[in-house]
Design brief:
Length: 351
């Protein structure tokens, strides 16, 4: 299967003229310059991404990508692998955290099932079944995916970005679901950054100290097998997950379609790192929702030169941290669009 065009072609740059107009407007609003802090820069960034003078975040598209991980055979998670499929059903039934936030935000929510170890039964509302494999292979012992599998996962993500564009989305959020995926993300981030596993491996679903030490040892062995390659596609195929690859494709596809992306926590940020390493221009299209409690997330954020909007100690995944940050983006738009200028209000500007 071929790679999506967003993998091989960079996205267009954001709109420099719209950015300059937004900066000029911020200087005319009835406030001291910089007094609204990052809400000002958010509004300017959104004007540049959306290419017009009045940014909006009305239509938010959320896609949660789900897939299982063969590395769970090594005992790296506190939860059984069957939870991935059970949570897909929970998403469909509206009971997950991201389900509640999608309702609160008036956002669309879809789930893309890329392959679970436990087969799912029956039709599930809002779930797109695009099975590639019943989970990845065990990354400690062999490549997690074949060439065709990683290409199919990237294509599945790109297709989700296409649906968001067709629906007129002003913002795209990708979420993850996959027991074992913090192990995969840690291994992938270590490979791309040249970091030691001890610096990036975290408790995931709640491992104790002994479990954390074992998980780091699994990542060490995976990296030894991988051999130190930092090529994004090679690393993704060798160490990634089906959902991580799909999120990578979705981020790149959204950027190619000029849709701002609000990045979630450790898993999604690692996918974003893959995307930016392949196409550095993707970075212009990324905003970062929150800092995860997973220790590896800060290393990935540093590599992306990213400062997230929130730091609430969250580590759930699903896109939940990004969703929590959406009201800040909406506030930035409201202030930029709705405040009066000094001339409009008859207020004296500084001399």
């Amino acid at each position: 299967m071929p790679l999506p065009s967003a993998w091989t072609s960079p996205p267009q740059p954001t709109d420099a003229a719209a950015r300059q107009r937004a900066l000029a407007r911020q200087g005319m609003l009835t406030k001291p310059s910089g007094s609204l802090g990052r809400l000002e820069t958010l509004a300017v960034d959104l004007c540049a991404m959306q290419g017009h003078d009045h940014p909006v975040i009305d239509q938010v598209a959320i896609t949660v990508f789900a897939g299982d991980h063969g590395v769970c055979d090594e005992g790296v998670s506190a939860f059984p692998q069957a939870v991935t499929g059970q949570m897909i059903a929970n998403f469909a039934n509206g009971g997950a955290a991201i389900s509640a936030m999608a309702r609160e935000l008036g956002a669309s929510l879809e789930v893309v099932n890329l392959g679970t170890a436990t087969p799912l039964e029956g039709q599930l509302e809002g779930v797109r079944h695009r099975p590639i494999a019943p989970g990845t292979a065990n990354l400690m012992r062999q490549s997690a995916m074949t060439e065709d599998q990683v290409s199919a996962a990237l294509q599945a993500g790109d297709a989700a970005a296409g649906r968001a564009a067709d629906a007129g989305a002003h913002l795209f959020i990708a979420g993850d679901m996959g027991i074992g995926n913090t192990t995969s993300a840690a291994a992938l981030a270590c490979a791309l950054l040249g970091e030691a596993p001890e610096a990036l491996v975290g408790p995931g679903t709640g491992l104790d100290a002994e479990g954390l030490s074992h998980k780091a040892a699994v990542v060490v062995r995976a990296l030894q097998r991988h051999g130190g390659h930092r090529d994004p596609l090679t690393a993704l195929q060798s160490l990634g997950g089906l959902e991580i690859a799909a999120i990578t494709g979705a981020i790149m596809g959204a950027a190619q379609r000029r849709i701002p992306v609000l990045v979630d926590g450790f898993i999604v940020s690692t996918a974003a790192l893959v995307a930016v390493r392949q196409q550095p221009q993707v970075r212009e299209w990324l905003l970062f929702g929150h800092r995860s409690a997973e220790p590896g997330h800060q290393r990935v954020l540093d590599a992306l030169e990213a400062t997230p909007l929130l730091d609430l100690g969250m580590r759930l995944g699903e896109g939940s941290g990004a969703a929590i940050a959406v009201p800040l983006l909406r506030s930035a738009c409201a202030l930029h669009n709705g405040m009066a200028t000094f001339d409009d209000a008859g207020v004296s500007n500084r001399a």
